[in-house]
Design brief:
The protein is mostly beta strands. The chain starts with a strand and ends with a strand. It is globular and about 40 Å long. Strand 9 and strand 10 (about 100-105) form a beta hairpin. The chain contains no helices and 11 strands. Strands 2, 4, 5, 6, 9, 10 and 11 form a 7-stranded mixed sheet that branches.
């Protein structure tokens, strides 16, 4: 049974940093593509970043240069390092199994950026 459990969200001031974690079970992180997707209050889903099984990565233009996706195969965990956070980054962040085609979602972790 596939499960994705996000953690690491919180309240941070503009310019601050957070690292989100997504602990996976039921599949091997290093084999499958995964993504981070966010949903800001009152808005639709926005793809943030993804990593393929071969390790290649992609980022939305809005986060490029500020966010870094990575994974630890030994811990079967996906990460999203977020630096230079801005109020526009406030959202519920979801971890997914899959990139173009997503078949599992986590429950999400809230990130709030405010002074």
């Amino acid at each position: 049974q596939v499960q994705l459990v996000e953690s690491g969200g919180g309240l941070v001031q503009p310019g601050g940093s957070l690292r989100l974690s997504c602990a996976a079970s039921g599949f091997t992180v290093g084999v499958y593509a995964q993504s981070w997707v966010r949903q800001a209050p009152g808005k639709g889903l926005e793809w943030v970043s993804g990593i393929h099984g071969d390790g290649s990565t992609g980022y939305a233009d809005s986060v490029k240069g500020r966010f870094t996706i990575s994974r630890d195969n030994a811990k079967n965990t996906l990460y999203l390092q977020m630096n230079g956070l801005q109020p526009g980054d406030t959202a519920l962040y979801y971890c997914t199994k899959g990139w173009n085609e997503v078949d599992y979602w986590g429950q999400g972790t809230q990130v709030s950026v405010s002074s």
